[in-house]
């Protein structure tokens, strides 16, 4: 945190925050910054002055934006960690005190039952039993506030770092006024909070802030301000002008002056109604039909409902054709084994993905080898030195340069799209799915606890960084992105679904419970696809409906008539504006869901999105509960994602080195390279499965039914050697991969 704040102060001393470069689009600024970072100093000095100034300005500007985001994200995580630690202490203290109080209550009960004790003596004995060293609080939240006030040192250190930032807010913001008060206290080294300080920014802390002990009040003021500032930064009521993720809320949306024209285009594209009324009528009609179908399923004893919620019977195992296992063994026996370098070069010969990674046509075999080496160094647990030892013709420096080359996200996306397009050209792919359904989930890669964005994976109990992937029903990873393993994944799931280009007609996206929120479900529907969550928690299985809809008696225990249609109508236009801003790339779905999610409970946009999401969730659950085939389809595509994760772990079985995951570009390179290696394996398997099937057909062997091929997946690592000395057979494919090399001799 100190390092990031120091970097921010250094850049602000250069007045970088004063030059916003509004004439250059943000993506262009990032591109120019990446170019400068990759250039050697000698090459940078050789550029024309105008180009040097532009690249340097963009590099400094982007560095300031990224450092600000990193520092604020660190502060958010440190605040959350502090709160978790204090809550654990409070729970432990309450648990310890509860045992002591039980003993005291037992003794008081015995005294009350003893009729020989006079009333005056009884009062004295009861008073002696009550301990004076225990703090009594009306609630656990009050106990947490008192504990935070008591342990104010980490709060104070964090606030002193944050006060180096330039915070802005609307006029009259109580949080901004409180920040000015705190700056004055720190500048004047006051140990007591001045009298009559406004505590409206944190009403629940007013008892401490307005108390007679002004030194204790200052402690409470600091703790209250830290959490109020965290919430304000999340919901966008306070922002930092030199930031990407913590900008002013209107800056992450389509400009109000452009919105009327964009609104019409967005409505025409998505076929959404101009007003919420007609959309509500359609949803409520479907909801009534869904409730009737659910009531019928309950009466048929297919579903049980009690006071605890809805209980589903286990799905019967799907009938699989008898010849699935035998056919799979025969196919993969015919496919045979392969060395990883041979696999990579063979698919590159078909797709020229190395050209995309390189950003140009290669002129020498060293160009192609360097790209392969960088891909292996980023997509596996190996480092530059390890890969250079596996490919003797390359030096460690050459591999390191190639690794930096892969930090260009656009080139990695294009390479993956080429490989996916090649895989989808094979006929066998049609037996796996129609390309309209995908699943998304995160896989964790072990990381050092010293990385600021590493978190403890709840499942594996290790520090890790997440790689979030979208897997198509036809197999193949259509999108990937690095994530923090403990963050809510709804925005990440939506972002991947709308940015991917491999599936043009994506209709449904299956996610687990962490990839779902009511607001996220609404955003997904407005963007043209359905979010299909696997809800494990029974409380998430309740049905939320508007008032006035008839509810069968069998469903009343799980139905809550709490959806406000008026809130949906009031916030409809702004809700469309948020969806359109995500659609055209003005903002990311991750940022939009963070700004308008649960941290903005009082915002009309959140209220409208939550109301729509609750309606859509109830509709989805009616289908999920009553349609076994639909439920099986959701679970099946989620299993596809787990199969791909297993393949990823075979390729990347180690941990991320601390020196390789400090910048977002490095994480993007790791995630994208691992995804590309997985797609290369699945594309190679698909190609050779198709070759085996075509060969069998030529030999007159009876064709294999689609029901059998549906269960034979290409996410397979057996038969592929991922380790050892790498010998890339470039000479076999020289004419296609390096057409400009002429008669050049290929050595490998």
């Amino acid at each position: 945190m100190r390092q990031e704040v120091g970097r921010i102060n250094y850049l602000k001393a250069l007045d970088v925050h004063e030059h916003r470069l509004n004439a250059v689009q943000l993506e262009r600024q990032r591109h120019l910054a990446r170019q400068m970072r990759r250039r050697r100093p000698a090459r940078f000095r050789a550029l024309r002055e105008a180009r040097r100034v532009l690249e340097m300005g963009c590099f400094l500007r982007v560095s300031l934006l990224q450092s600000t985001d990193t520092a604020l994200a660190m502060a958010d995580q440190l605040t959350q960690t502090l709160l978790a630690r204090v809550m654990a202490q409070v729970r432990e203290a309450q648990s310890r005190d509860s045992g002591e109080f039980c003993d005291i209550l037992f003794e008081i009960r015995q005294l009350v039952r003893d009729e020989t004790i006079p009333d005056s003596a009884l009062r004295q004995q009861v008073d002696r039993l009550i301990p004076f060293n225990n703090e009594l609080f009306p609630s656990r939240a009050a106990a947490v506030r008192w504990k935070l006030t008591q342990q104010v040192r980490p709060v104070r250190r964090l606030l002193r770092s944050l006060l180096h930032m330039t915070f802005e807010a609307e006029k009259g913001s109580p949080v901004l006024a409180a920040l000015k008060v705190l700056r004055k206290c720190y500048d004047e080294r006051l140990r007591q909070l001045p009298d009559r300080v406004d505590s409206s920014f944190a009403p629940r802390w007013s008892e401490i802030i307005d108390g007679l002990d002004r030194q204790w009040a200052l402690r409470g003021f600091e703790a209250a301000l830290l959490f109020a500032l965290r919430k304000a930064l999340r919901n966008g009521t306070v922002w930092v002008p030199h930031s990407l993720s913590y900008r002013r809320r209107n800056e992450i949306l389509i400009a109000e002056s452009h919105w009327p024209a964009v609104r019409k285009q967005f409505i025409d594209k998505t076929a959404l109604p101009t007003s919420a009324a007609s959309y509500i009528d359609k949803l409520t009609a479907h909801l009534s039909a869904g409730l009737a179908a659910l009531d019928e399923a309950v009466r048929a004893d297919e579903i049980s409902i009690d006071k605890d919620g809805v209980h589903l019977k286990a799905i019967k195992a799907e009938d699989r054709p008898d010849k699935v296992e035998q056919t799979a063994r025969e196919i993969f026996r015919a496919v045979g084994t392969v060395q990883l370098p041979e696999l990579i070069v063979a698919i590159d010969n078909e797709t020229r993905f190395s050209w995309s990674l390189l950003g140009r046509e290669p002129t020498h075999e060293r160009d192609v080898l360097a790209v392969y080496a960088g891909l292996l160094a980023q997509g596996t647990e190996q480092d530059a030195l390890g890969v250079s030892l596996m490919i003797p013709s390359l030096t460690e420096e050459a591999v390191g340069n190639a690794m930096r080359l892969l930090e260009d996200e656009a080139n990695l996306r294009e390479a993956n799209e080429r490989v996916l397009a090649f895989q989808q050209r094979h006929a066998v792919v049609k037996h796996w799915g129609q390309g309209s359904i995908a699943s998304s989930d995160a896989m964790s890669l072990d990381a050092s606890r010293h990385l600021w964005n590493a978190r403890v994976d709840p499942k594996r109990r290790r520090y890790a960084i997440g790689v979030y992937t979208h897997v198509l029903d036809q197999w193949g990873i259509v999108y990937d992105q690095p994530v923090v393993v403990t963050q809510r994944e709804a925005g990440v799931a939506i972002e991947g679904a709308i940015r991917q280009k491999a599936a043009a007609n994506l209709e449904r996206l299956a996610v687990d419970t962490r990839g779902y929120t009511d607001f996220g479900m609404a955003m997904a529907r407005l963007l043209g696809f359905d979010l299909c969550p696997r809800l494990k928690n029974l409380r998430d299985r309740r049905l939320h409906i508007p008032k006035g809809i008839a509810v069968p008696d069998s469903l009343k225990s799980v139905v809550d008539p709490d959806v406000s249609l008026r809130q949906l109508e009031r916030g409809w236009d702004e809700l469309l504006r948020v969806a359109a801003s995500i659609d055209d790339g003005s903002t990311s779905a991750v940022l939009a869901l963070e700004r308008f999610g649960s941290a903005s409970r009082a915002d009309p946009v959140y209220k409208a999105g939550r109301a729509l999401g609750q309606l859509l969730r109830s509709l989805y659950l009616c289908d999920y509960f009553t349609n076994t085939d639909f439920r099986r389809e959701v679970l099946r595509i989620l299993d596809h994602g787990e199969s791909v994760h297993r393949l990823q772990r075979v390729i990347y079985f180690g941990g991320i080195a601390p020196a390789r995951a400090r910048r977002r570009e490095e994480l993007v390179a790791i995630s994208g390279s691992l995804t590309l290696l997985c797609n290369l394996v699945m594309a190679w398997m698909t190609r050779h499965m198709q070759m085996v099937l075509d060969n069998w057909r030529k030999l007159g062997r009876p064709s294999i039914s689609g029901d059998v091929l549906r269960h034979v997946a290409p996410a397979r690592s057996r038969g592929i050697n991922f380790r050892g000395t790498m010998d890339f057979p470039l000479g076999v494919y020289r004419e296609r991969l390096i057409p400009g090399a002429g008669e050049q001799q290929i050595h490998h």
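Residues 2-247 form one domain. The chain has 29 helices and 14 strands.
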